[in-house]
Design a protein that fits this description.
Blueprint (H helix, E strand, L loop, with lengths): L23 H7 L4 E5 L8 E5 L2 E8 L2 E6 L13 E3 L2 E3 L6 E2 L5 E3 L16 E2 L1 E4 L2 E4 L22 E4 L3 E3 L3 H9 L4 H4 L18 E3 L2 E8 L18 E8 L3 E7 L5 E10 L5 E4 L1 E4 L7 H19 L7 E2 L12 H12 L5 E2 L2
Antiparallel strand pairs: 1-11, 2-3, 3-4, 4-9, 5-6, 6-7, 7-8, 10-11, 12-20, 13-19, 14-15, 15-16, 16-17, 17-18, 18-19, 18-20, 21-22
């Protein structure tokens, strides 16, 4: 007897960027989150080109409004970032089509008196300016933007410092895991703040939070630059309070002597699965009279030490199956991080 079968149509997933380096299902999950894509101070007299999750983006100003849109002119596919900033928006370098608020095309020089079809409007994205950064989400479904919290940023006694970005030719998950790791100080950061003779990691335990987890890590490893001898207190117990916001952002609040605090945000923005743009705003309530360039320089040295490690790691991706790499007790944060990504539904072997 013949049997009949009923085919079930699977709803199409989101349109993936051309040349997407992520597994499609992973991309669809990651694209629902908010990431920084530029320093607010860099958006000015010309359209700014950037990329997030393999999606090319352009940022420009249309009067008082900032616009984040796909960096492709709908007419003939030329990047709008090649164009020029004009009054009220941006003009395409190829045929001069002009785009203004909301990414809407408002002028076609070849046909100035004809109606402009909606197909000429740009695909635009929501944005939020916070901590001196421009944040966006590629698959925002409405509601309030969920931007990671940064302790002390808005408190009057804290200085706000927005460091230049750092590009890392590695996966955002690997970079984030390195930021959360406390066992590498004595081996990777010996030219900046680490102590080669103080490698032991005291016990600590991650605690789950709404958007990830947090860790209070206490040790005798200081956080002053190597060579600074006139500060600190003998026997002082340093507290490093990590707060992780999945998938790729964390803050580290360091408790210095005399109630001094330093908070650094590690926002690893996935340009692609193989390139990460690191944004690192800082807030501190001490040394506020010192040159900001000194902070930029020291921060760059620390992250360049980490960058060398991340770019050399194999596999390039972050394995979420706990059996795919070996672990030690100091890896509690790493294990909590991988578990959190796995619980988000990301693939067993996080593709990069």
């Amino acid at each position: 007897m013949a049997t009949s079968s009923v085919s079930v149509l699977t709803p199409p997933g989101p349109e993936l960027p051309r040349g997407c380096t992520f597994d499609g299902s992973d991309w669809a999950i990651l694209a629902q989150h908010w990431y920084p894509i530029a320093l607010a101070r860099d958006v000015g007299d010309k359209p700014l080109s950037t990329k997030l999750l393999d999606e090319p983006l352009v940022i420009y100003r249309a009067g008082s409004e900032l616009v984040v849109a796909r960096d492709i002119c709908p007419h003939r596919g030329v990047p709008l970032s090649m164009g020029t900033q004009v009054e009220g928006g941006v003009s395409c370098a190829y045929h001069g089509l002009r785009f203004g608020a909301g990414g809407r095309c408002n002028h076609v020089p070849a046909h100035p008196d004809r109606d402009i079809p909606a197909r000429l409007n740009l695909k635009s994205y929501p944005h939020v300016e916070r901590y001196g950064l421009i944040w966006t989400c590629l698959l925002h479904e409405g509601g309030e933007p969920v931007i990671p919290d940064m302790p002390h940023w808005d408190e009057a006694e804290f200085q706000q410092i927005v460091c230049p970005t750092i590009d890392i030719f590695g996966f955002a998950g690997r970079q984030m895991e390195g930021f959360l790791d406390v066992a590498h100080f004595a081996f990777v950061h010996t030219d900046t703040f680490g102590d080669a003779n103080n490698a032991e990691v005291p016990p600590y335990k991650p605690a789950k939070t709404e958007h990830g987890f947090e860790v209070e890590y206490r040790s005798s490893v200081g956080n002053y630059p190597i060579g600074v001898t006139d500060r600190g207190k003998p026997g002082f117990e340093w507290l490093r309070h990590f707060r992780t916001h999945l998938p790729f952002t964390a803050t580290l609040e360091i408790h210095f002597p005399d109630e001094a605090r330093l908070v650094i945000m590690n926002a690893a923005s996935p340009v692609s699965a193989r390139v990460t743009r690191l944004f690192a705003p800082i807030a501190r309530n001490f040394d506020t009279d010192l040159p900001v360039q000194d902070v930029y320089d020291f921060n760059l040295r620390v992250f360049e030490e980490d960058k060398a490690i991340v770019e050399a790691q194999m596999p390039e991706c972050l394995p979420l199956d706990p059996m795919m790499e070996a672990h030690i007790p100091a890896d509690m944060s790493s294990m909590a991080y991988r578990r959190g990504l796995r619980d988000m539904g990301l693939s067993r072997f996080f593709t990069a």
